[in-house]
């Protein structure tokens, strides 16, 4: 399906430099974009995919933070839990026949993700690169002209 101009799309501007996190973030952006473009009958299935993705995505980051004793992990983990609760709640509504809630959630997540990535995930990416490679993250962005 052709993307609408308002749906979120992956761009290298989202790259943070820690490979496993960047791969997960690309999948997250694709899940949200698909939901923004979805027809009502596709919403329940896409919500299942989003819930499965978000559960694994947030657990992966939470596990990294706990395993490496990342100091400011409390608010980051709280934010993951709050967003996962919203996704779980909206999935229930979608299954009960209110697919329009999915579009609203997808739009909210499209607004939420860039700032979460900028403020919280980027610090974790730096931390993980330092621990794993003893280096700062390197980001190579393609310029599209
Ligand atoms: Fe993330
Ligand atoms: Fe995060």
List keywords for this structure.
Four Helix Bundle (Hemerythrin (Met), subunit A); binds fe (ii) ion; 145 residues; 4 helices; mainly alpha
Tell me what the structure shows.
By secondary structure, the chain is mainly alpha-helical. It has a single domain, classed as Hemerythrin-like (Four Helix Bundle (Hemerythrin (Met), subunit A), Up-down Bundle), CATH 1.20.120.50. 69% of the residues lie in helices and 0% in strands. It contains four helices and no strands. α2 (43-67) packs parallel to α4. The protein is globular, with a radius of gyration of 16 Å. One fe (ii) ion binds at residues 61, 76, 80, 116, 120-121.
Radius of gyration: 16 Å
Ligand species: fe (ii) ion
Overall geometry: globular
Helix content: 55-70%
Number of domains: 1
Q: Identify the CATH architecture.
A: Up-down Bundle
Global mean pLDDT: 91
- In CATH, the homologous superfamily goes by the name Hemerythrin-like
Detail the topology: elements first, then pairings.
Blueprint: H1 19-36, H2 43-67, H3 73-95, H4 100-133
The structure holds fe (ii) ion (FE2) (2 copies).
One fe (ii) ion binds at residues 25, 57, 61, 121.
Nutshell version of this structure?
Helix content is 69%, strand content 0%.
